Amino acid sequence: MYKKSLGEKLFDGSNYFLLSLLVVCTLYPFIYVLMASVSNPTFVLQYRGLLLWPRGFTLDAYKYVFENPMIITGYRNTLFYVFAGTALNLLLTALGAYALSRRYLLGGTTVMILIVFTMFFSGGLIPTYLNVRNLGLLDSPMAILFPSAINTFNLIVMRTAFRAVPESMEESAKIDGANDYIVLFRIFIPLTFPVFAVILLFYLVQHWNSWFPALIYLRSRELFPIQLILREILIASDTSQMTSGNVGQLDQMPIGETIKYATIIIVTLPIICVYPFLQKYFAKGIMVGAVKE
């Protein structure tokens, strides 16, 4: 049985303390927003101090949010952008990474240098906007999906993972009559699934949190994602306009403040629920290419 020295015990205790403090600092803002969203709006504005439980429990803020037709429309649009965009991202990233991972690809090094160059230098906002406009993508869902179809960093990570697969497996599969698509989807992706799952999560979070491209390229409110609707709610200064005439005594309450908190919870909760199912792949995914034998 190994017995830790005093220095090691102090070191472990310091780590536990710092990590616990970090957990508290990270978790409390979410707890505060959650408790404020189900509290009486008057109490929320008047209360000072830690908010660890609801003050005057009420779900009126959530009722207001779901009565707003733009919330439902924004959710529907966001789900489309997330699923369609992620599927497009994964398909193109996998195809590009597979081609660039083959050492026999003619000019592969040159293409890779040009791709890496785009990580450090871009055309800028105005040239990108003009490009999207000239392609006829303005005010359409394609303006959200196509400009961000491939993330350079994710492409490099997946390429590195594919290069770690022994070439003998590809050669044996092709001897048995498999083409490149079968090799990619039945051999490479299953063998590098931890990396694939991590990149899947990266793209999901990217699309779920994205609001700036929609602000730039979309004009029709029917196409707005939920994040853009959330932005409008958060920057609204006149909270009294958020109340309607059919809520009785709530007309006199500053319910707009709790509406903001409720909207934040509704928007962030789905992506938080996804994390636990993919978190186990992170440790495996980030170790790809770390050890060379």
Protein topology:
Elements: H1 6-37, H2 41-46, H3 60-67, H4 69-101, H5 108-120, H6 125-134, H7 142-145, H8 152-163, H9 167-175, H10 180-191, H11 193-209, H12 212-217, H13 226-234, H14 255-278, H15 280-286
Distinctive features:
single chain, 293 residues, mainly alpha, MetI-like fold, 2 domains, 15 helices, globular
How would you describe the overall organization of this protein?
With 293 residues, this protein is an all-alpha fold. The chain has two domains: 6-65 and 236-280, no CATH class; 68-223, MetI-like fold, CATH 1.10.3720.10. Helices cover 69% and strands 0% of the residues. The protein is built from 15 helices and no strands. α11 (193-209) runs antiparallel to α14 (255-278). The protein is globular, with a radius of gyration of 25 Å.
Question: Could you give a quick summary of the protein structure above?
Answer:
It contains 15 helices and no strands. With 293 residues, it is mainly α.
